[in-house]
Amino acid sequence: MQDSDFSMPTEGVKQLPKLERQRLHDTVVEHLRSFIIEGTLGAGTKLNERELCETLGISRTPLREALKVLEAEGLIEISPNRGASVARMSELDIREAFELMSGLEAFAGELACERITSEELDEIKALHYAMVVCKNQNDLPGYYQRNRAIHDLINLAARNSALRQTYMALNGRIQALRFRSNLQAPKWERAVHDHEDMIQALEARDGKRLSAILRQHLLAKRDALMLMLGQGSE
């Protein structure tokens, strides 16, 4: 797969509102992260600072600060000679990352069933219902935002800081891939069913069941991505 030069589409792209300075940094990071996760900026894409600044309506200083954050998350790579580009992962990297994530999420689910509060469970259930609404409206970005929040809350409910740090580091690298794994309708339907099972296991405080569901959920995403790559999907 060849690297591609970046040319930001002007139609349908989110434009940054006028912002207070203290909010600008986080907002630029979030917009760029969304462009990468949702595929507006594909793997290997070289980033043109001037075009990005014009698209987002910002100067180069906040852009460069945001790029450093995304580099630390593993979403982009910055080279002294080539500049910044969206990070890419080999098929082996993807396979191994999802195998590891399946174990991390399984462990988090087991701990969460022991430690989650009623308030946290209610928040996860509310996110699940909102996620299903997005699915019914064919709103994949909205669906994925709530999906990501559910997995994040389960991880937080595990209350294990070492697990949290490892999870955050790896999850940042594979967000775009997790998003892409829902592009095929049957896989999307299966993911929603998995989340319904997750809610039931959490309500029952059944750690072994939730652990098994989460492990298989992540491995199914791995398999969907391997199939897409095998079919030549970028």
TrEMBL record:
Pfam family, one: FCD
InterPro entries: GntR_C (IPR011711), TF_FadR/GntR_C (IPR008920), Tscrpt_reg_HTH_GntR (IPR000524), WH-like_DNA-bd_sf (IPR036388), WH_DNA-bd_sf (IPR036390)
Keyword Transmembrane recorded: no
Domain HTH gntR-type: from-to ranges: 22-89
GO molecular function annotation: DNA binding; DNA-binding transcription factor activity
UniProt keyword terms in alphabetical order: DNA-binding, Transcription, Transcription regulation
Protein name, as recorded: Transcriptional regulator, GntR family
Protein's organism: Pseudomonas abietaniphila
